[in-house]
Amino acid sequence: MRSLWNDKEAKACGKDLLKMRVYTSRLLGAEEDLVLHGGGNTSVKIKEKNIFGETEEILYVKGSGWDLATIEAPGFAPLKLGALYKLAELDTLSDMDMVKYQRMALTNPAAPNPSVEAILHGIIPYTFVDHTHADAVVVITNTAKGKARIVEIFGKNMLIIPYVMPGFILAKTIFEMTRGIDWESLDGMILLNHGVFTFDHDAQVSYEKMIDIVSQAEKYLKQAGAKEAKASKNAHVDARLLASIRKEVSDLWGMPVLSKLDHSLAAVGFSSLPNIKSVSNRGPLTPDHIIRTKRTPVFFTKDPQKNLVDFNSSYSGYFDKYNSGEQKLDPAPRWGIIPKMGTVSFGPTSKHVRIIEDITRHTKKAIVQAEKLGGWKTLGQKDLFEMEYWSLEQNKLKKAGAAKPMQGRIALVTGAASGIGKACVEQLVKQGAVVAALDINPTILEAFPQNEVLPLQCDVTKEKQLLRCIEEIIVQFGGLDMLISNAGIFPKSARIEDMKEELWDKSMEINVTSHQRLLQMCVPYLALGFNSAVVIMGSKNVPAPGPGASAYSVAKAALTQLGRVAALELGENGIRVNVLHPNAVYDTSIWTDEVLKARAKHYGMSVKAYKTNNVLKVEVTSKDVADMAVAMLGPVFSKVTGAQVPIDGGNDRVI
């Protein structure tokens, strides 16, 4: 591990200690092997004058919920240092009282809740204090001879702290251990099974002490031959199994969730370890990960339902053994192992899944490294249970906002690069869904910056491309719940007697056959989905065709008939199929300003009058169509299938 310190950037902080604290905190947060997703904490002690002109020593410590990688000055909670010293001298202090009295010590009542380690930061007699959960150090402590190895690597100048619960108990333990100690003699502190503390009056020195300690641990692991196990090739992906797993996990969780397969060479190598079931059942990398990952992953075979029954039973036994009045959390796993295929992460949103994936990626590497050092050994179940059900940790999870209507649901939209398709993707994301956005146009790959969208370039008339895309959707999201079959073309006008064969064939291939192929491929996954529904994008030309548009009108009529038959066939699987008939949607790529002006002139109208030439005299936009399509996928239409709905402002010919 190398130092990221930059003299020019540091100099820009001037003499502002809080700015310097933000700067070096971000340096720590930039390295995933030090902290992940809100882990770790930092502080700085600053002398300030209060409103009465009195000089006070204030501890600025990372606030709960802030991430070191992105923290700003408002993310540090300012507390009176003297009050923290008094708290450290108490014999006992409950968690709730600790939170209460720490808030009472704040000099700014609008500040975030201080870190649970605020008291510990306060008693360390240095200006800057850094705390990380450095992987390399924790790996070494998570072995049978962990403490002895730490002594071997770092010598007598490293204070070694046995594992105790974070918060007041940890602060009190260190307060007692360091009475009369010469702090100048210490290079830092290592908390077994937990992490590392460094400190100094100089921000750069404290930061680089952390880098040096972790580098020594990494060097030790390298010399011991402790490295990741990697497969020689990627494993075959069983998409049906993945969709079944996602379905069963969602049922256990009590709501639709997403899942993501990691089938990298490292993940496949990990899942292929001969003792994988045993070694993965010993606990997480650090105790603070347990609120995200639970104590263990679920081990999958070809019968995910039975695997999850077993996991539920095991979790219930673990809870019954250690609970002392706590409310049982949901028993669903947060990650799983599929032997010789990789690992899979679960969560209600793409953000949750990404966090689990990041944590488990580090965990898998750590397990393999520890096995090379004689065996992976974590904290006992009782300690882990206390951490999982620690009220202060559970409060972090409770801060999540209300779920969006389509949270955890997975959609596929074709023709998604522009117009109606693009608007459908945007509306689905707004409602909380994740979306696979398909289009033949390569601009699809840059069309959506959101993590919730999987952009895929695909020619929907090519069966192999469709199969590849559907497999990628299952790998990335776990299944499929919703389909908006929207891709299509509007051929040039041609009377029947003048119709060229290739024009007719192309319209049929894209506007009908590709939809049938896609629906056929999606049905097995929709059958395993949640509130599964399909919206087929028809056209006003079905009920009210016009001359010169037979290639388009006939194709859309056939597509509508496909939707009607699909509704009849798929209803027994709980899959709804409805058809939407838009008309005169002019904010799409085919309707340029020039084309609109020409068409309006042809009818002797202004552009505005032409765009609102319907019964209601309103303009119909892509967003209007998308809103209706997404509504048809939702609960309002939960008992509707086989319907055809016009969205055209009212067309007198259709009416």
Shape: elongated
The CATH superfamily of the largest domain turns out to be: Class II aldolase/adducin N-terminal domain
Sheet/helix structural class: alpha/beta
Segments where pLDDT lies below 50 for 5+ residues? Answer: none
Query: Treating each run of at least 4 consecutive H or I residues as one helix, how many helices?
Result: 24
User: Architecture of the largest domain, according to CATH?
Assistant: 3-Layer(aba) Sandwich
Number of strands: 18
Mean pLDDT: 94
The CATH class of the largest domain, by name, is: Alpha Beta
Give the % helix. Answer: 40-55%
Count of domains: 3
- Fill in the CATH topology of the largest domain: L-fuculose-1-phosphate Aldolase
Distance between the termini: 71 Å
Largest sheet: 7 strands, mixed
Beta-strand percentage range:
5-15%
Q: Quick gist of this model?
A:
With about 650 residues, this protein is α/β, with parallel strands linked by helices.
Describe the model:
There is one protein chain. The protein has 655 residues and is an alpha/beta fold. The protein folds into three domains: 7-223, Class II aldolase/adducin N-terminal domain (L-fuculose-1-phosphate Aldolase), CATH 3.40.225.10; 239-398, Class II aldolase/adducin N-terminal domain (L-fuculose-1-phosphate Aldolase), CATH 3.40.225.10; 410-585 and 620-647, Rossmann fold (3-Layer(aba) Sandwich). 43% of the residues lie in helices and 14% in strands. It is built from 24 helices and 18 strands. The protein has a seven-stranded mixed β-sheet with strand order 3-2-1-4-7-6-5. A seven-stranded parallel β-sheet has the order 14-13-12-15-16-17-18, with helices on both faces. Strands 8-11-10-9 form a four-stranded mixed β-sheet. β6 (188-191) and β7 (195-200) form a beta hairpin. α18 crosses α24 (622-633). The longest helix has 26 residues, at 501-526. The model has no long low-confidence stretch (mean pLDDT 94).
